[in-house]
Design brief:
This protein is an alpha/beta fold. It has 3 domains: 3-54, no CATH class; 58-127 and 284-481, Aminopeptidase; 133-276, Glucose Oxidase, domain 1 (3-Layer(bba) Sandwich). Helix content is 35%, strand content 27%. The chain is built from 15 helices and 18 strands. The chain has an 8-stranded mixed beta sheet. Helix 10 crosses helix 15 (462-481). The chain starts with a strand and ends in a 7-residue tail after the last helix.
Length: 488
């Protein structure tokens, strides 16, 4: 009778694990035959490793040695990760217009100078200032419960006495419009489950004005996110001109869903709300940056970074302190290795992305005359989770070059370069023709923490952070050091 045997092999070669499975039919294999079979499969493993090495692109082959140095240094260094923790714990959240943000920016400039980066400086940006103040909410019927809320960015306050009202639950803007006659004098709650960020965020952004149009006295939303542990999500909102401004806040997913069920059961829901949110005039802030000046083409620039401002909940660890420090660390590692790229590599931390995009627009304006020589813009603003590569927007010819370079990152599983990508802060210069790319990471947990009190340093994994550093550093270095500039 034929006997089936399965041979499993896990071979670790040059930092890469290979897996082999062989299903063979045998009557009886003596020990020598088994040894021969094992060594045959092992030889396949080694030849496969060589095959992967040979799969490096033509450009990548020229940069394999230095890229491996960058990767090894990034993956075995904790200083960038530690620096992120120091920044978050020392200065806390960094809302535009806050003292926390400005102290952080001055600290970054001092630290960049200590790192020996070139041309370290700030560029002034006028930013909006909104202050949350104290806020609270209580459900008073059908039973009493303290509610965890976060006022939405830009919201007006309730006044010193607060406000009270019956809650009117709707499931969409269309639902609100069709039942407008029932809404006057009530607190409108948009109990809209998360689908995608782009689709669901509209209730946060314009929900207050839509509620005010039908006579609502305040607006509440189900937090924009797929997961919660009683953690509301804040974020920017806006008021339409000539529409009354009413208070606007986010409930937790749990409380919004509960009120939705209560409404379906015909229960009357009442809430008392107190908010001190207030907007002030614009105040000065700055974009901060440091660079390695190119050895041959100093006016040609590869720019990489993230937005240094955050919401005032949590510490802004994944959004976007981690992206900023990872880009900064990428440039620092290139310098520490003594590499001298032909083109300038500039790390930028943009201010005021969250509630204005003033930093990205100001960078465009300040460097408008230089944008023809901005070779590539790279942004990290999706958290510093495990990276898979980049999404790129630019010519197909350039995409092929970047995919070639990406093969250098296969060894850490972050070399996939796809069409379509960028970022909010590099968006203004991309519109002027600068090719752009956004770091792609495992986003399965990003909206768990995004804009919540849970976006804190303990959520950042050191290995995943270091992979982000390595991925950005290799890409920036090779594009900066190629013989030919990346095509427009």
């Amino acid at each position: 009778m034929l006997k089936k045997s399965i041979f499993l092999f896990f071979i670790h070669v040059n930092g890469i694990i290979f897996y082999f499975q062989s299903l063979v039919k045998e009557v009886q294999l003596n020990k020598m035959n088994k040894i021969i079979l094992i060594f045959t499969l092992l030889s396949v493993g080694f030849s496969t490793n060589n095959g992967n090495k040979n799969q490096l692109g033509e450009i990548a082959k020229k940069f394999e040695k230095n890229s491996n140095l960058i990767i090894e240094k990034a993956m075995n260094d904790s200083r960038g990760y530690d620096r992120l923790g120091e920044m978050l714990d020392t200065f806390g959240p960094r809302l535009s217009g806050s003292t926390n943000l400005e102290k952080t920016l001055e600290w970054i400039l001092d630290e960049m100078k200590k790192d020996g980066l070139d041309n370290v400086h700030g560029e002034e940006v006028m930013v909006p200032k909104w202050v949350r103040g104290k806020e609270s909410a209580t459900m008073t019927a059908p039973w009493e419960k303290d509610l965890v809320i976060l006022g939405l960015g830009g919201s007006v306050g309730t006044g010193p006495k607060g406000l009270k009202g019956e809650v009117f639950v709707v499931n969409s803007f269309d639902d609100l419009k069709s039942r407008a006659s029932e809404a006057k004098g009530k607190i409108i709650l948009y109990n809209v489950p998360f689908t995608t960020y782009g689709e669901t965020v509209q209730y946060r952004y314009r929900g207050a004005s839509e509620a005010a149009k039908v006579g609502g006295i305040a607006s509440l939303i189900r937090s924009v996110g797929p997961y919660s542990m009683n953690t509301p999500h804040t974020g920017t909102s806006a008021y339409e001109d000539d529409v009354k401004k009413i208070p606007h806040a986010a409930l937790t997913l749990e409380d919004a869903a509960m009120m939705g069920r209560m409404a379906d059961r015909g229960l009357k829901i009442k809430v008392s709300l107190y908010m001190e949110g207030r907007s002030f005039g614009d105040v000065p802030s700055q974009n901060v940056m440091g660079e390695i000046i190119g050895s041959e083409f100093p006016d040609e620039v590869i720019v990489l970074g993230g937005h240094i401002d955050s919401w005032d909940a949590g510490q802004g660890a994944h959004d976007d302190g981690g992206g900023c420090v990872a880009a900064w660390e990428a440039v620092k590692i290139i310098k520490e290795l003594g590499l001298k790229p032909k083109r300038t590599i500039r790390a930028v931390m943009w201010t005021n992305e969250e509630n204005g995009l003033r930093g990205g627009n100001a960078y465009r304006d300040a460097h408008m005359d230089e944008l023809d020589d901005h070779i590539l813009a790279m942004e990290s603003d999706a958290g510093v989770f495990k990276p898979s590569g980049f999404g790129f927007s630019g010519p197909d010819e350039s995409l092929k070059i970047l995919q070639d370079i990406g093969s250098l990152l296969y060894r850490i599983d972050s070399g996939i370069i796809t069409k379509g990508g960028g970022g909010a802060d590099i968006g203004p210069i991309m519109k002027e023709g600068v090719p752009g790319m956004g770091l792609k990471v495992d986003g399965s947990r990003y909206f768990w923490y995004h804009h919540t009190t849970a976006d804190t340093f303990d959520k950042v994994d050191k290995d995943e952070f270091n992979r982000c550093v390595a991925t950005m550093a290799v890409m920036a270095y090779v594009v900066a050091d190629m013989d030919k500039r990346l095509p427009r």
